[in-house]
Specification:
Number of helices: 2
Strand order of the largest sheet: 5-2-3-4-7-6
Radius of gyration: 26 Å
Low-confidence stretches: 5-10
Strand content: 35-45%
Distance between the termini: 39 Å
Order of helices and strands: HEEEEEEEEH
Shape: elongated
Mean pLDDT: 84
Length: 146
């Protein structure tokens, strides 16, 4: 008898459950998990800059830098040791790689980075809203039949 009551109680909870809509946006999976969202310039080229991003912070300083290649924005001035902050609502994303030769004739390949939106549209939200609209149309159609 106890099992039947528990089953009825659980069934009642499930049928009366409120369905919450998923959030409209989600974190962009293309964003890199970096200790700091900034690029420190160490060399300015014609159309790009070479800089570093901090992947891991120690107590007060960066202990793991990564060299990156970033396209210059038109009409902006760039110089060595400049710190370029990632704009609000954006994050750093790796888009490809760039290979260059150093003065010592060594070949280095580094990620090309760009700033992308930190949040993107949630595909689950779009599906939820579409399903909700279809359900509403069905309910209206069923109500007209009665």
């Amino acid at each position: 008898m106890k099992k039947i009551c528990l089953l009825l109680l659980l069934t009642g909870c499930v049928t009366n459950a409120t369905i919450f809509a998923p959030s409209k946006t989600i974190d962009n999976p293309k964003c890199e998990n970096l200790a700091k969202q900034e690029v420190k310039v160490f060399q300015v080229l014609d159309d790009y800059i070479l800089g570093t991003v901090c992947r891991e912070m120690g107590y007060t300083t960066c202990i793991d830098n990564l060299t990156v290649y970033l396209k210059k924005e038109k009409d902006k001035i760039y110089y060595n040791d400049q710190v370029i902050d990632v704009p609000n609502g954006k994050c750093i994303s790796y888009s490809s790689t760039y290979t260059y030769t150093t003065v010592k004739e060594n070949s280095n390949t580094v990620p090309v980075v760009k700033f992308v939106d930190k949040s993107i549209a949630n595909p689950e939200y779009e599906k939820f809203m579409k399903d909700k609209e279809e359900q509403s149309k069905k309910e209206k159609k069923d109500a007209k039949k009665k």
